[in-house]
């Protein structure tokens, strides 16, 4: 497992303080991140592979400082977005997955073998020559996952990867994540997806307000939502 260390990390966008004073040492295999809309979860996730830079403090993946060694970090940390369209770049499924390996300049046969293996593992080998943009939402998310996994990252960060999917596809993607050997940090609003994780972080207004096993962390989050509902007079 990698060690993800946040040391006094803060992020501002202009005048808005989006994350503040985040200190975390994450070594567990399955880490969930939950919190209300706009609480800072995506920003927290994006910091891990350098999509967002800290305004203060620093973030280390093992001994690599993300701000200084972004390339090396991105080889180790794969990122899956909510909307797979934002990461599909090539015309066909096979080409899109192979694209991840392009900078590594591997022999063609090795690239093909790796691509075939990952498509097979995710149950989408039959889609290899299909145009990527003709796939269903669930198939696209599996393609996005394949394109990340083919790079053999040690850590997978996923930002609400099931949000745009119907219940059946969401279950399928969640099951694929559950069987990955990699360390996974999953941001989600679907609390059931992290119920058997090793550790769950609750983010509220840019801070970590609970950090525990799923039972107590999710119970804390439910109480927080209830308290906010009560304070707003029950308005959504
Ligand atoms: N690039 C940016 N520039 C300016 N403000 C931003 C940027 N990215 C995020 N924000 C703001 O930072 C805050 C936290 O956003 P973030 O996306 O991290 O929240 P979130 O918890 O993931 O929300 P959601 O559950 O709705 O996805 C929000 O107020 C958002 O508008």
Task: Explain how this protein is built.
It comes from Agromyces seonyuensis. This is ATP-binding cassette domain-containing protein. Pfam families: ABC_tran. Belongs to the ABC transporter superfamily. Keywords: ATP-binding, Nucleotide-binding, Transport. The chain is an alpha/beta fold. The chain has a single domain, classed as P-loop containing nucleotide triphosphate hydrolases (Rossmann fold, 3-Layer(aba) Sandwich), CATH 3.40.50.300. The strands form 2 sheets. A 6-stranded mixed β-sheet has the order 6-7-8-3-9-10, sandwiched between helices. It has a 4-stranded antiparallel β-sheet with strand order 2-1-4-5, covered by helices on one side. The radius of gyration is 18 Å and the shape is globular. Helix 3 packs across helix 4 and helix 5 runs parallel beside helix 6. It has 7 helices and 10 strands. Helices cover 34% and strands 26% of the residues. It starts with a strand and ends in a 5-residue tail after the last helix. Adenosine-5'-triphosphate binds next to strand 2 and helix 1.
């Amino acid at each position: 497992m990698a060690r993800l260390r946040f040391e006094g990390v803060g992020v501002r966008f202009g005048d808005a303080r989006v994350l503040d004073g985040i200190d975390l040492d994450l070594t567990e295999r399955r880490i969930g991140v939950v919190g209300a809309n706009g609480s800072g979860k995506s920003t927290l996730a994006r910091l891990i592979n350098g999509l967002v830079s800290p305004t203060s403090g620093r973030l280390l993946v093992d001994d690599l400082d993300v701000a200084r060694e972004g390339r090396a970090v991105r080889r180790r940390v794969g990122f899956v977005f909510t909307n797979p369209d934002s990461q599909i770049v090539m015309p066909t499924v096979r080409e899109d997955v192979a694209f991840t390996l392009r900078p590594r300049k591997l022999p063609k046969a090795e690239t093909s073998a790796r691509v075939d293996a990952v498509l097979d593992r995710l149950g989408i080998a039959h889609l290899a020559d299909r145009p990527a943009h003709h796939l269903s939402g669930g198939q696209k998310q599996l393609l996005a996952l394949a394109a990340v996994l083919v790079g053999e990252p040690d850590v997978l960060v996923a930002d609400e990867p099931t949000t745009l999917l119907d219940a059946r596809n969401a279950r399928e993607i969640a099951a694929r994540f559950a069987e990955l050997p990699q360390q996974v940090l999953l941001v989600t609003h679907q609390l059931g997806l992290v119920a058997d994780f090793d550790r769950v972080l609750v983010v509220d207004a840019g801070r970590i307000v609970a950090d525990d096993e799923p039972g107590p962390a999710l119970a804390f989050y439910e109480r927080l939502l209830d308290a906010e509902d009560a304070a707003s007079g029950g308005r959504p």
